[in-house]
Design goal:
Elements (H helix, E strand, L loop, with lengths): L2 H16 L2 H8 L3 H15 L4 E3 L4 E3 L1 H27 L5 E7 L1 H8 L3 H7 L3 E7 L6 H4 L3 E5 L8 E4 L6 E5 L1 H4 L17 E3 L9 E5 L2 E5 L5 E3 L2 H9 L5 E4 H9 L4 E3 L10 E5 L7 H10 L4
Helix pairs in contact: 1-2, 1-3, 1-4, 2-3
Length: 296
């Protein structure tokens, strides 16, 4: 079937329903000559006569009726789908794919999902929690959540959380056998719990004080890929960990972990929702952005 036949089949169905070329022309808002040309071309292409014509009426032939038996339900389904899409155009509904880091999912999104999905029950939210940086356009995502420092310049970005800060910590047990580091370079003599990203790259600790950045390629006996596991290993005395402050605040307060190099842990940009364009923004995405936007 070629593309022209698709439009010709719609014309054929309209003629059969109206019982005349002129009636179909009025229904489709096109010239009667265009109706006649479409039907003639369709019949020639199929090698079948689909309509019997007299000066007073037009009716389907036996072959035309058989075609209509299949065609009418299909056109009805297409019409219903188009009506549904038009109806949904003004309200948040349908699938919404979002990629984000595990930390953003655990700390910012999942704790509020119940409220969001109660407000928007027609949204089907599909979340991929992965620390790998995704090209959301190539990956077929509607939006993503990443740290502000990692965003591409051509993305629309909306703040989703407050500024963050890291914390270098270890257990009291660890400091029974190791001195307290006073400068980032002292970390080179310590047992550190390192982190491997999903890309395979091992993170080099980035410590900053008053705009001065020091990057340290730490060493240690353990490499993990998840901050929850890194925290657990630090609590067990494995070594020093560099972890988001929010994850260990209670541990520090209750003495399970001891924080060091605090003056080298300046705050940095937190998480942002990012997406490619504001043009023809889907209501489901607009609802997600507005709901999870950070309100200072």
């Amino acid at each position: 079937m070629n593309r022209n036949q698709l439009s010709q089949l719609a014309v054929f169905a309209a003629v059969a329903e109206a019982g005349s070329f002129r009636g179909a022309a009025r229904e489709l808002n096109i010239a009667p000559s265009a109706i006649s040309h479409a039907i003639t071309s369709l019949e020639a292409g199929l090698g079948l006569r689909l309509l019997s014509r007299t000066t007073r009426s037009v009716a389907p032939t036996e072959e035309g009726r058989r075609l209509l038996d299949t065609l009418a339900p299909a056109l009805g389904d297409i019409g219903a789908t188009l009506d549904s899409l038009a109806e949904q155009a003004g309200r948040p509904a349908g699938p919404l794919r979002v990629t984000m880091t595990r930390l953003a999912a655990e700390d910012l999104i999942v704790p509020r999902l119940g409220e969001f999905l109660r407000l928007y029950p027609e949204i089907e939210l599909d979340i991929t929690a992965d620390d790998r940086f995704e090209d959301i356009v190539a990956g077929g995502y509607d939006a993503g959540l990443r740290l502000g420092e990692h965003l591409e310049a051509d993305m629309i970005a909306v703040r989703a959380g407050p500024p963050l800060s890291g914390a270098v910590v270890a257990s009291p047990r660890y400091f029974e056998d190791h001195p307290v580091p006073l400068h980032p370079h002292d970390l080179l003599t310590h047992r550190c719990i390192r982190r491997r990203f999903a890309s395979g790259r091992i993170y080099r600790w980035e410590l900053e004080r008053q705009g001065k950045l020091v990057v340290v390629d730490v060493r240690g006996p353990l490499i993990l890929s998840d901050q929850t596991l890194i925290r657990a290993a630090a609590l067990d005395g494995v070594g020093l960990a560099y972890i988001f402050d929010e994850r260990i605040r209670d541990d520090v307060r209750q003495g399970r972990l001891i924080r060091v190099l605090e003056d080298w842990c300046d705050p940095f940009d937190g998480f942002y929702i990012y997406y490619p364009s504001r043009q023809q923004m889907r209501p489901a995405l607009r609802a997600f952005v507005d709901f999870f936007r950070h309100k200072a």
